[in-house]
């Protein structure tokens, strides 16, 4: 680095640190974005120069669902092997959030001390990051429809990823979910080393393809894909009867792997983090040990005990995610360990301002499981309406479920806890901003 | 006696919870013990199936999916759909569907997609950098005779509440707009019109989805479908819509449209 660059970097870092201190001391927030924004103005090539300073390389985690959990598992595995890891753990995954996360680990002259940086990156921002930054590893988890009010379409995003990754050095390693046709196809188009992960457990196939599915069409020729079975959404075993496109082989037997937390989606998160750790050089025994002892990230199948009642928070921010959390809750209800569910629907910027996606969720499955359903959030009546229409009989007359509407979230939580027997678990399914609010009420402090 | 709901390309054209419109029609029939069946009208469907439906629902699509639909919806299938709409089969077409019924749609990238030309309208995307029209939308139905018929049932002017999210802008020719925008962008953010109305077909950018939040439209469609099929009037029993009303009031409060709250 040239002297001028060094001074400029030091200046940008100094200013960022000062802002962080001010924001935090005035209790204006967690300072997870603003320092990055301002220091980038002082040093436009700040992000690439921070990337270059990470000793063993930057790992980017992209995908619609599972970024935070995958990152946290990978980070835990690496830290337990003694590596120093930087991670944008607040979930701020746009450019300024990445810069802020890296800056918090620099000293006053801008020297970063880390072996690895794990950065969760918003799917739409990835091409922008890759324009002038060079990660060592990229993990692609999945591409679902999410927040279309902000973005375009799944196909367009995949094409932009391909273009951006193709311009990276040949020694970049890409790890992709082969059960996702869009990502498997993407991997087949890349010139770098590509590793695939996926499931080989047909007993986990869903009975039918859920409605909330985006890409059952061949990414190569547009023909309808032939599915032998689906694990969740459009992730599964498939091939194209027209052009012969088929999923790439994984070279890993998912049956041999333990999994973190609960749910099929966490099998994918486990494989993604575990396989990348193995590629980095961590041995399987250590990886498996961390998997077995893993604790959830906030709101992602996180478990809490509140006033003697057991609570599990399952972030539900899009149709695919919510179908999976409903599947998890139903399975637990079947064995008699749950009967009360609280749904919290918000429509703020981090949630997506359009709530029509709840009509793509198979809430009928929740109704069929019976029990007590409590609804709350900014759009409490929209959620209640969705549940009303999930039942073949108006108002669920003569049915085995009870719907309770609480505009006030505090009251909703209190009611939910009251109804939950001590030997059962209360499940809370919130959107993103709702999850932050729920946690604040439950544990009494802000996390972001 | 039963009503058949034809759902246009469920796997290709259901981007924004448009399934809610199908669910709404289906449930409101079931709750009244009217026999109802939902059939998919997609690539595997025989043309004759198109001719059998009593209600049509079409939703939004991504550009690539819309192209696949338009490739399939040609010749006999297009003719069958045209025939249905011309003969007065009620339909609700949201988001991408109105573009499909118009003359053409020009996407931001790629080639012009020809529509069925049933409605005299065109849609254009002003370019990849142009902002999308996104947000909660409120409009008054003004199309005749729909507006009068709804007013007779409701006792007040019919107000639709929904959510719009479209890159394309629609410009009407000699077709009546569905309504006039109170809050939001509507067809193009310029002329204050929203959607289009032709025979018994409702075309609109408003999803949310449309029918559950505006159940009077669903009931109007069911009534028309019944008349069309059995040539007799169907007197609908009133349903418990307090949750829909509460959802509508909550949105009007948020948008500070207090003068409309009394009319809900």
3D structure, described in words:
The complex is a heterodimer of chains A (448) and B (264). By secondary structure, chain A is of the alpha/beta class. Chain A has 15 helices and 14 strands. Chain A folds into 2 domains: 3-292, 3-Layer(aba) Sandwich (UDP-N-acetylmuramoyl-L-alanine:D-glutamate ligase), CATH 3.40.1190.10; 300-443, Protein-Tyrosine Phosphatase, Chain A. In chain A, strand 2 (85-87), helix 5 (95-103) and strand 3 form a beta-alpha-beta unit. In chain B, 35% of the residues lie in helices and 25% in strands. Chain B has 264 residues and is α/β, with parallel strands linked by helices. Chain B is globular and about 45 Å long. In chain B, a hairpin with a 2-residue loop joins strand 13 (196-198) and strand 14. In chain B, the strands form 3 sheets. Chain B has a 6-stranded mixed beta sheet. In chain B, strands 6-5-7-10 form a 4-stranded mixed beta sheet. In chain B, strands 9-8-11-12 form a 4-stranded antiparallel beta sheet, covered by helices on one side. The interface between A and B is large, with 33 and 38 residues.
Number of domains of chain B: 1
Mean of the pLDDT scores of chain A? Answer: 88
Biggest sheet character of chain B:
6 strands, mixed
Give the domain tally of chain A.
2
In oligomeric terms, what are we looking at? heterodimer
Number of E-state strands of chain B? 14
Radius of gyration of chain A: 22 Å
CATH architecture of the largest domain in chain A: 3-Layer(aba) Sandwich
> What global shape of chain A is seen?
globular
CATH superfamily of the largest domain in chain A: Mur-like, catalytic domain
CATH homologous superfamily classification of chain B: Class I glutamine amidotransferase (GATase) domain
Which CATH architecture of chain B? 3-Layer(aba) Sandwich
Tally of contiguous helical segments of chain A? 15
Quick recap:
Chain A is built from 15 helices and 14 strands. In chain A, the strands form three sheets. Chain A has a six-stranded parallel sheet, with helices on both faces.
């Amino acid at each position: 680095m040239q002297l001028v660059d060094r001074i400029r970097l030091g200046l940008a870092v100094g200013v960022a640190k000062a802002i962080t201190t001010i924001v935090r001391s005035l209790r204006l927030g967690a300072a997870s974005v603003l320092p990055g924004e301002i220091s980038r103005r002082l040093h436009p090539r700040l992000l690439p120069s921070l990337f270059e300073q990470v000793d063993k390389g930057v790992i980017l985690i992209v995908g619609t669902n599972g970024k935070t959990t995958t990152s946290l598992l990978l980070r835990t595995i690496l830290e337990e092997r003694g590596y120093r890891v930087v991670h944008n753990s607040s979930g701020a995954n746009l450019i300024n959030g990445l810069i802020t996360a890296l800056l918090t680990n620099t000293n006053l002259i801008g020297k970063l001390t880390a072996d690895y940086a794990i950065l969760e990156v918003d799917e739409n921002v990835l091409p922008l990051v890759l324009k002038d930054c060079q990660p060592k590893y990229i993990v692609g988890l999945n591409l679902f429809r999410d927040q279309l009010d902000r973005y375009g379409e799944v196909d367009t995003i995949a094409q932009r990823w391909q273009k951006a990754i193709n311009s990276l050095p040949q020694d970049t390693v890409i790890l992709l979910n082969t059960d996702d046709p869009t990502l498997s196809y993407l991997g087949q188009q890349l010139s770098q080393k590509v590793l695939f992960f996926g499931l080989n457990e047909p007993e986990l196939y869903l009975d039918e393809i859920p409605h909330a599915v985006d890409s059952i069409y061949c990414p190569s020729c547009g023909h309808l894909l032939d599915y032998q079975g689906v694990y969740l959404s459009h992730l599964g075993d498939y091939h194209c009867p027209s052009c012969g496109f088929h999923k790439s082989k994984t070279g890993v037997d998912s049956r041999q792997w333990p999994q973190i937390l609960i749910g099929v989606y966490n099998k994918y998160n486990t494989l993604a983090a575990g396989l990348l750790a193995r590629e980095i050089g961590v041995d399987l025994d250590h990886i498996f040990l961390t998997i077995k002892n893993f604790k959830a990230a906030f709101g992602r199948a996180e478990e809490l005990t509140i006033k003697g009642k057991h609570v599990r928070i399952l972030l539900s921010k899009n149709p695919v995610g919510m179908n999976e959390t409903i599947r998890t809750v139903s399975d637990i209800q079947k064995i008699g360990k749950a009967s009360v569910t609280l749904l919290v629907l918000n429509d703020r910027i981090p949630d997506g301002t359009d709530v029509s996606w709840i009509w793509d969720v198979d809430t009928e499955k929740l109704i069929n499981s019976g029990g007590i359903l409590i609804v709350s959030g900014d759009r409490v009546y929209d959620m209640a309406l969705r549940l009303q229409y999930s039942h073949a009989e108006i108002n669920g007359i003569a049915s085995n479920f009870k719907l309770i509407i609480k505009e006030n979230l505090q009251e909703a939580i209190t009611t939910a806890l009251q109804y939950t027997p001590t030997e059962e678990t209360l499940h809370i399914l919130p959107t993103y901003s709702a999850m932050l609010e729920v946690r604040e009420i439950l544990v009494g402090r802000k996390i972001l | 006696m039963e009503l058949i709901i034809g759902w246009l390309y469920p796997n290709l054209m259901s981007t924004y919870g448009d399934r809610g419109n199908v669910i709404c029609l289906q449930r409101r029939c079931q709750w009244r013990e009217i026999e109802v069946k939902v059939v998919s009208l997609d690539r595997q469907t025989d043309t004759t199936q198109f001719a059998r439906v009593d209600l049509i629902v079409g939703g939004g699509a991504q550009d690539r999916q819309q192209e696949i639909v338009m490739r399939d919806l040609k010749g006999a299938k297009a003719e069958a759909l045209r025939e249905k709409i011309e003969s007065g089969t009620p339909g609700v077409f949201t988001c991408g569907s109105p573009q499909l019924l118009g003359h053409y749609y020009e996407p931001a990238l790629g080639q012009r997609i020809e529509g069925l030309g049933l409605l005299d309208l065109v849609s254009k995307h002003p370019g990849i950098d142009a902002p999308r029209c996104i947000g909660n939308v409120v409009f008054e139905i003004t199309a005749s005779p729909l507006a009068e018929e709804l007013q007779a049932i409701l006792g007040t002017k019919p107000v639709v509440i929904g959510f719009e999210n479209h890159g394309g802008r629609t410009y009407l020719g000699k077709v009546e707009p569905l309504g006039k925008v109170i809050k939001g962008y509507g067809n193009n953010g310029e002329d204050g019109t929203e959607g289009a109305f032709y025979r018994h077909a409702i075309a609109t950018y408003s999803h949310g989805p449309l029918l559950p939040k505006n159940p009077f439209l669903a009931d109007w469609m069911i009534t028309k479908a019944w008349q069309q099929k059995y040539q007799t009037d169907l007197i609908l029993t009133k349903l418990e819509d307090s949750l829909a009303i509460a959802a509508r009031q909550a949105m009007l409060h948020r948008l500070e449209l207090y003068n409309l709250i009394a009319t809900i």
